[in-house]
Write a structure and sequence with these properties.
The protein is an alpha+beta fold and 294 residues long. Helix content is 32%, strand content 23%. It starts with a strand and ends with a helix.
């Protein structure tokens, strides 16, 4: 059983040949397995789900960073998803009986080496954060790649590792340790992104909505439809089906409906126990982490 999962998010979802090279780099280290790869052209983002031990993941992720710096130029990158880096965020998640402290240590080791080897500013988040104001990913990523140079003028935002200067093409990177996160998107039967944004405001925790839910409304140009894009950062506090039902209620109140949903990456079996893909309006079968590990 691998001891750790890592879920690097890279800022490329439109060039399949580039994504393939990035994935090959990530699994170039012994013992690293690619469990899932999800790309989206509208978000212009790919999410890799990797599993292995700390040493293998460390070397595989360094290879991924090296490939991403060669392939991705954020000055030419556009997409609806917020991003600050070519490798935007790299979380470690403990598997099985692995303690969170091992994921925290892996994040710190990777952050230090990424900064040393590639000259990237590195911020540690969630359980690996050195400062409370850097715990939430959204707080670190505020302003995006284009706004980060101005943030670095503030001494409070000196990176945890690396130079206090944005890399000209690769930006900065955020590395951390966390609990399982469910990336869950609901496509609406409307082309009005304002409706999706209104639903997101009502659903997310920061707007008085559901606990442990982050949400934003985005426009899917490839489909001509709006989407509510959610991160469920603790499915024990807000189960996936509860989040969907709330989105459906808010959609109906605003004169639309949920057409279908998708899960980006994998989910633990516990998060979807007793729930079917049909109930979830998923466009594919439930992507269960334990099944891929097995």
């Amino acid at each position: 059983m691998p001891r750790l999962e890592s879920v690097p998010n890279v800022s490329e979802g439109r060039r399949p040949e580039v994504v393939a090279r990035l994935a090959a780099a990530a699994v170039s280290a012994p013992g690293v397995r690619l469990l899932d790869l999800s790309s989206d052209p509208d978000h212009n983002r790919s999410v890799l789900t990797l599993a292995g031990d700390a040493g293998g993941l460390h070397h595989g992720l360094l290879a991924l960073y090296e490939a991403a710096l060669a392939e991705i130029d954020l000055t030419r990158h556009t997409g609806v998803h917020p991003r600050v880096g070519a490798v935007d965020v790299t979380p470690f998640v403990p598997l099985g009986e692995t303690p969170m402290s091992e994921a925290v240590a892996a994040a710190g080791r990777l952050g230090a080496e990424v900064a040393r080897r590639f000259g990237l500013p590195v911020y540690l988040y969630e359980k690996a954060a050195h400062r409370p104001e850097r715990r939430l990913l959204a707080d670190v990523r505020r302003g995006g790649f284009e706004g980060f140079a101005a943030r670095l003028q503030d001494p409070a935002w000196v990176p945890d590792f690396g130079p206090a200067q944005v890399h000209p093409t690769a930006g900065v990177t955020v590395i951390g340790a966390r609990f399982f996160l469910v990336a869950f998107n609901a496509v609406l039967d409307t082309d009005d992104v304002a409706v999706a944004r209104a639903i997101a405001r009502r659903v997310r925790e920061s707007g008085g909505g559901l606990p442990a839910v982050r949400a934003m409304g985005v426009w899917l140009a490839s489909r001509g439809l709006a989407q509510v894009s959610m991160n469920l950062v603790d499915y024990r506090r807000t189960p996936i089906l509860q989040a969907l039902r709330r989105v459906e209620e808010e959609a109906v109140a605003l004169g639309t409906r949920v057409l279908e949903t998708e899960i980006i990456g994998l989910v633990p079996a516990e998060a979807v126990r007793g729930v079917t893909a049909a109930e979830m309006k998923l466009v594919r079968e439930l992507p269960i982490l334990e099944e891929r590990l097995g």
